[in-house]
Amino acid sequence: MDGLKVVIIGAGIGGLTAAIALSQSGHTVEVYERAQELRPRGAGISLWSNGVKVLNRFGMGKDIAEIGGQMDFMQYLSTSGEVLNHVNLHPLIEEVGQRPYPVARADLQAMLLKKFPGTVNLGYRCLSVEEHGEQVTAQFENGHKATGDLLIAADGVRSSLRQYVLDREVHPTYRDYVNWNGLVAADEALTPANTWTIYVGNHQRASLMPVGGDRLYFFFDVPLPLGTSAPPELIRSELAEHFKGWAEPVQTLIERINPEQTNRLEISDVGPVDRMVRGRVALLGDAAHATCPDLGQGGCQALEDVYMLNHFLLTTNISVEDALKRYEAAREDRTRSIVKKARNRAEVIHGKDPEVTAQWYDQLRQESPSDVTDAIAKTILTGPLQ
């Protein structure tokens, strides 16, 4: 189908990539974002090879390579700094045909904004949608209305349009741990420049991952009850208490973080939901299948959504509704599996069953690096781009 008018709600990774892809396919695209300014949720993101391949498909391969970190190895360490497992990622890269790129979210968002030929309308909070004949209209809080041939709801984990598609409310579910994340200058005292380093123990994690600009994306995970909080000035002391006695690089990292630029997030997920489409309205990305970040596939799944949605709009011509139903059918099993797999991994990492977590620590010591890369490759190659 050519020359459709597409209304996209949400200017995150999924919404902006969809805007780029659909514009390249000859459609007219309008993007609306409820925020007054674009500020990414979280400091960094690991884009595994399946997500990078989607960006390659839409002409952004060189761009993502320029802003992404060069990650050649990953290593798991104990709280004392003992190496539990050291994994060379080159066999994985050769098997799947693409290097992964950890990237600062602000850099990724800036790249996508530059590639989108249109304008993102900021400060537009969508209140409702209404379908009428062969069109759909979004109604915004400021009184504006946007009408198109289809509407993509890419408005995130707390989507305001998910209820319309599902005909029921589905709220995010807290997964029992808090994540702190941000960026620091790269330094060999923290981790080798080409290595993703993960310290594990006490059902907690401290992680350092290379991103572009000689920086490291860091995160800490700690199981905590819902509703805990700390003002920025207490974040460093809070982390120091949780990670007391951990290896020296972890202590150095805590000293170097900028508390004012450190995010503190209560981690939730959504779904699996039983549908992604209603008529001419399609959910995309976190609005349909927000995952725990423990698998590194949240952003990648939004990008896969974009690829498949664009594919069916290009290759089927029965109707918009038909193309969207094909998109839904193509994504259902994949996204369900990823949500469940990421949730299970979060539970293993963060001690939902302490015995299972202890077994995982033992497994890290014993499993071969190829077992690690084979598991990652399986997740990547189960997607639509081989």
From TrEMBL:
<comment type="pathway">
    <text>Purine metabolism; urate degradation.</text>
</comment>
<dbReference type="GO" id="GO:0006144">
    <property type="term" value="P:purine nucleobase metabolic process"/>
</dbReference>
<dbReference type="InterPro" id="IPR050493">
    <property type="entry name" value="FAD-dep_Monooxygenase_BioMet"/>
</dbReference>
<feature type="domain" description="FAD-binding">
    <location>
        <begin position="5"/>
        <end position="341"/>
    </location>
</feature>
<dbReference type="InterPro" id="IPR047712">
    <property type="entry name" value="HpxO"/>
</dbReference>
<keyword id="KW-0560">Oxidoreductase</keyword>
<dbReference type="InterPro" id="IPR002938">
    <property type="entry name" value="FAD-bd"/>
</dbReference>
<keyword id="KW-0520">NAD</keyword>
<dbReference type="GO" id="GO:0004846">
    <property type="term" value="F:urate oxidase activity"/>
</dbReference>
<dbReference type="GO" id="GO:0071949">
    <property type="term" value="F:FAD binding"/>
</dbReference>
<keyword id="KW-0285">Flavoprotein</keyword>
<keyword id="KW-0274">FAD</keyword>
<keyword id="KW-0659">Purine metabolism</keyword>
<dbReference type="InterPro" id="IPR036188">
    <property type="entry name" value="FAD/NAD-bd_sf"/>
</dbReference>
<dbReference type="Pfam" id="PF01494">
    <property type="entry name" value="FAD_binding_3"/>
</dbReference>
<dbReference type="GO" id="GO:0102099">
    <property type="term" value="F:FAD-dependent urate hydroxylase activity"/>
</dbReference>
<comment type="similarity">
    <text>Belongs to the FAD-dependent urate hydroxylase family.</text>
</comment>
<protein>
    <recommendedName>
        <fullName>FAD-dependent urate hydroxylase</fullName>
        <ecNumber>1.14.13.113</ecNumber>
    </recommendedName>
</protein>
<keyword id="KW-0503">Monooxygenase</keyword>
<dbReference type="GO" id="GO:0019628">
    <property type="term" value="P:urate catabolic process"/>
</dbReference>
